Amino acid sequence: MSAPTPPILDISSRRPHRADARRNFDALLEAARDAFGKHGTDASLEDIAKQANVGIGTLYRNFPTRQDLLEAVYVGETQELCRAAQGVADLEPWEAFTAWLDSFARYVATKMALLQALNKDSEVFRACKGAMYGSALPLFERAQQDGALRPDARLDDVLRMVSGMVSSVYADDDQRARVMGIALDGLRAR
């Protein structure tokens, strides 16, 4: 197993030292993740504070702007995706890469609203994208070197393909799984 994923953005430096304040900080992130997932990035900050069982002042003390909160949630989700790459690293090359792609597909499906609200030119967005690619690239290259993945495929091509498939509307989950299976079959080396 590889070393722990380093923080993409040093949120831990903003995380309070007192135990009760840390709990509030973590509760706010969890509530925001839930609210943004259910209601989009315009979710009420007052409702997020209420769901976290804190006052609105505590939310603003930890996250002075909505963008700060959006970025913190996005960073946390990206770090989970990077940890997923570490979690599958010991699998056979093709299984490791496709397992990570499954995690990536779930990530994309739930992060569409966040992605649209983030500044694509921001340092946070670039750092998250770099960390995500950096965690996936060893899995991708290992699958290619093993002869399981087409030699002409590029990681960026595959991630764009999966992102496009995930953002499509399907009749049901079976159709979504079929389409993903067809795409993955097309990525296999012949």
Task: Supply the number of helical segments.
Answer: 8
Which superfamily, in CATH terms, is the homologous superfamily of the largest domain?
Answer: Tetracycline Repressor, domain 2
CATH topology of the largest domain: Tetracycline Repressor, domain 2
Compute the separation of the termini in Å.
30 Å
Low-confidence stretches: none
Run of helices and strands: HHHHHHHH
CATH class of the largest domain: Mainly Alpha
Strand content: under 5%
The overall pLDDT average reads 88
Helical content stands at over 70%
Question: What is the count of distinct domains?
Answer: 2
- Architecture of the largest domain, CATH level 2? Orthogonal Bundle
Return Rg in Å.
Answer: 18 Å
Q: Tell me about the biggest sheet?
A: none
Q: Helix/strand-derived class? A: mainly alpha
The tally of beta strands, per DSSP, is 0
Task: Describe the protein.
It contains eight helices and no strands. The chain is mostly helical. It folds into two domains: 12-64, Arc Repressor Mutant, subunit A, CATH 1.10.10; 66-190, Tetracycline Repressor, domain 2.
For this entry, give a set of tags.
single chain, 190 residues, mainly alpha, 2 domains, 71% helix
Q: Helix and strand layout, with pairings?
A:
Layout: H1 19-39, H2 45-51, H3 56-62, H4 66-88, H5 93-117, H6 123-145, H7 155-167, H8 173-187
Write a brief caption for the model.
Helix content is 71%, strand content 0%.
